Backbone:
């Protein structure tokens, strides 16, 4: 009996051979590399990856789809099927100690948590995801552009982002309500922010962009709960125009601000934290590929 796509998991199955080939091409599988696939679905991308990978670990949350994949690849030892929630799995542990990369068609309603889960240290050689076009715009956006925001800054601080073409809704069954785009993230050899700094950096960037229309003097005063004079001194130490807004600052400038604040003994105001979990997708945020 054919598998019926489950709306609660944002399942939209991709079978377009041109798009599948483009994803694999963007990933550029390397000899002796482990590939981790997130959201294997019915296995269209899985099959292409299995032809190129030294070892393939495919993660699938849907119990029925995972069972079908295990049966399909029972006689191919290079393919391992892992049933479970990707956010509960430390991806580096799946590499087997080898170089590894990550790819997949991720659900739109938890795209951002999965992106940063995949970018957690130790990082893979490359990440290639099929995401909502709006997310692709934000990931690759330049300072000062409309799409530039916290996601742009936090991703570009640790990885180089490329786009590999638009994917129309008609490439999927059932059709999602939005178009998609293939993006690759290649972790930087020398990220501009250290792993120890990342939590504070992310909080700083998110706090700043929650006030993106305000000038930096007001933003810094709010973030660190300080008066105008020390805020001005902190901003000047980073060569930031006090009238600038967060949306025009490059990722490196946010790193400079974080480090200057630390040298000054300043701490950010407490912000809520915690991992975002999945919630039922709405029509405008529904998944757009073989995803679970």
Residues:
């Amino acid at each position: 009996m054919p598998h019926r796509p489950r709306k609660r998991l944002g399942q939209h199955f991709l079978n377009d051979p041109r798009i599948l080939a483009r994803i694999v091409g963007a990933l550029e599988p390397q000899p002796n590399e482990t590939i981790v696939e997130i959201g294997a679905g019915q296995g269209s991308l899985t099959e292409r990856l299995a032809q190129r990978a030294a070892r393939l670990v495919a993660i699938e949350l849907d119990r029925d789809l995972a069972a079908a994949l295990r049966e399909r690849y029972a006689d191919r030892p290079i393919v391992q099927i892992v049933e479970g929630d990707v956010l509960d799995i430390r991806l580096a542990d799946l590499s087997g100690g080898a170089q590894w990369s990550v790819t997949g068609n991720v659900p739109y309603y938890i795209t951002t948590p999965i992106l940063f889960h995949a970018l957690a240290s130790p990082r893979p050689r490359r990440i290639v995801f099929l995401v909502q076009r709006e997310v692709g715009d934000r990931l690759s956006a330049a300072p000062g552009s409309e799409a530039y925001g916290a996601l742009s800054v936090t991703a570009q601080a640790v990885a180089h982002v490329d786009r590999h073409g638009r994917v129309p809704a008609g490439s999927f069954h059932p059709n999602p309500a939005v178009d998609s785009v293939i993006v690759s993230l290649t972790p930087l050899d020398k990220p501009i922010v250290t792993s120890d700094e990342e939590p504070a950096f992310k909080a700083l960037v998110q706090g700043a962009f929650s006030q993106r229309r305000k000038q930096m003097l007001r933003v810094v005063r709010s973030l660190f709960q300080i008066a105008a004079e020390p805020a001005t001194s902190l901003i000047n130490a980073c060569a930031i125009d006090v009238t600038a807004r967060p949306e025009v600052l490059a990722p490196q400038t946010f790193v400079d601000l974080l480090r200057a604040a630390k040298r000054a003994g300043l701490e950010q105001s407490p912000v809520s934290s915690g991992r975002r979990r999945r919630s039922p997708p709405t029509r405008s945020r529904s998944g757009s590929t073989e995803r679970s």
Q: What stands out?
A: Residues 6-10, 272-292 have pLDDT under 50 and may be disordered. The longest helix spans residues 251-263.
